[in-house]
Structures are given as C-alpha cells and as structure tokens.
Amino acid sequence: MLERILFPTDGSDGAAFAFDHVLDLAVRHDATVHILTVADTTENGMLQIGGDDVTALEQDRDQIVREAAEQAHQRGVETVTKVRQGEPYREIIDDAERHGLDLIVMPTHGRRGLERFLLGSTSERVVRRADVPVLTIRPDDDVTVTHPYENVLVPTDGSDCANQALAIGVDIADGEKAALHLLSVITITALGTDARPDIQMEALEESAHELLDEATAFADGAGVEPASKAVEYGPSIHQAILTYIEVHDIDLVVVGTHGRTGFDRYVLGSVTEYLVRTSPIPVLTVRAPETDT
C-alpha cells in the first residue's frame, strides 16, 4: 500500500518530529518519500514573512528539502524533492492527487511552544479535503510514536467514511503484521429521555454488535482476523476511544472523516477533530470518496 509517501515540511520542530516516523514507514515498506515545501505566496503568507522577497523565501525552502532528503538518504530512503509557491494546503492536496501518492504525513502544529492546534491550520484543511489518507502526529511530549505498529484500532459507526477507514485499517494491519482491534462505542447520552432506557440500550447494543460483525466479516474476507472486537460505553465517543487506546496499548488509530459535505463537519460530530488534537498516538484519517447523487 505505502509505495509513495508525501511529507510536507516547513522545517519546524514539529515537522522534524513527524519526519522520523515517515522514514520508519518508508524503510519498512520500501517507499519513496516525496518531500514538499511550499512558499506561502498568498497575501497573508507574504505579510507573515515581513516583506521578504519570494526568491529569498524559495532559497530557504530549497535548503529545507535538501536537508530532509539528506537525512532520508542516510537511511537508504529514495526521495523526490519539490518546492512550490501558493497556498500550502492546496499545493499539498494537488501534489498528492496529481502524482497518485498513497499517504500524506503531517504534524498537527509546527513551532515548539506555539500551540497552533489543527483547527484553522494547514493540516486541518488537508485532513478535511484530501482524498488521500492523512496521518497526523502531535509533536508533543505526551505523544508516543511506536513503529512497527503492533496494535491498530479502527472505530466504526457503520458510515461510508468509517467503512473506508476500515478498508485502510485492515490493509495497514496486514502490511504491518499488526493486531487489528475493532471498536463500536455507545454513549450514555444516546439513551436520551426514553421512558424505557433498558429497551433502548438493548437496541443500541444489538446495533453495535451488528456493526462489529460486519466489520469482522470484511476483515476476514481480506485475510485479517481481528484480534478483538469490543463494544464500549462512555460519556462521549472520543473519550471512549482514548481510553481504549490507553488500556490496549494501541499504536495507530484509523478513523473516517468527511470534509466537503454540509458544514465541513467530521464524521461522528467532532470526534475525529478531537482525536487529531488530543490523541497520544498517530491518527490516520480517511475520507470516503464523493459520489454523485
């Protein structure tokens, strides 16, 4: 699956943190890493560089990709380097789709000590809009990045996005020889004000187990037997997922998201957004392809 990986970089500490993991993936899968940096020549970007001319900006970007390529070559990883001008998130998405790349890997924020979380950032826009799966990593002290992956978690709610994430998660687990964990979450708030919560809970549990059975059948059909399938309960979906990650030593969580429908909301409300912001491990987001209606 992972033959061509796109790594957008701005030379920041956050990017350097993520790049170590990119190289681990590339070595294991014998992948080529496309190293991309974008000179932000939008109006806001030019204001932020304090009037520096584009030539000087490009020279700085050339040095960033050269240094990253040298680091990759020291580990025997083949690279393609690119410097572009424009709006960073658009250039990243266009490059990934134009060249048929398999994965984009990005940090959720760049500068150490600057809490520029995903919301409103380049990474957030890429996650929402890219057809290519996006692996995000928080470059923070409480984050653990382990490779090769030993335990891969795929939460599911039965949506098209979740099913697309399941397909990628199964592929990743197979390629990494990792244990596949399937999870369905029932929230306490889902019970609402029904006069017979026991009946409603029974229906929710039945539905959750059906989703897991369907996911298990899909994984089995792909030659991957899930190591576990669980129905968990909690005050929120994202908190139940985070708890499962901690208890079961999960190394990677694969979740579905959608970006161009409605108000650009994530699947399951803000669950994916919250996970990308707070997960102690890498998060692989997968957006289901759009279909014409």
UniProtKB/TrEMBL annotation:
It comes from Natrinema hispanicum. PANTHER family: STRESS RESPONSE PROTEIN NHAX (PTHR46268), UNIVERSAL STRESS PROTEIN UP12 (PTHR46268:SF6). Residues 1-138, 149-287 form the UspA domain. It holds the Pfam family Usp. It comes from the Archaea. The lineage of its organism: Archaea, Methanobacteriati, Methanobacteriota, Stenosarchaea group, Halobacteria. SUPFAM superfamilies: Adenine nucleotide alpha hydrolases-like. Belongs to the universal stress protein A family. This is Nucleotide-binding universal stress protein, UspA family. Transmembrane segments: none annotated.
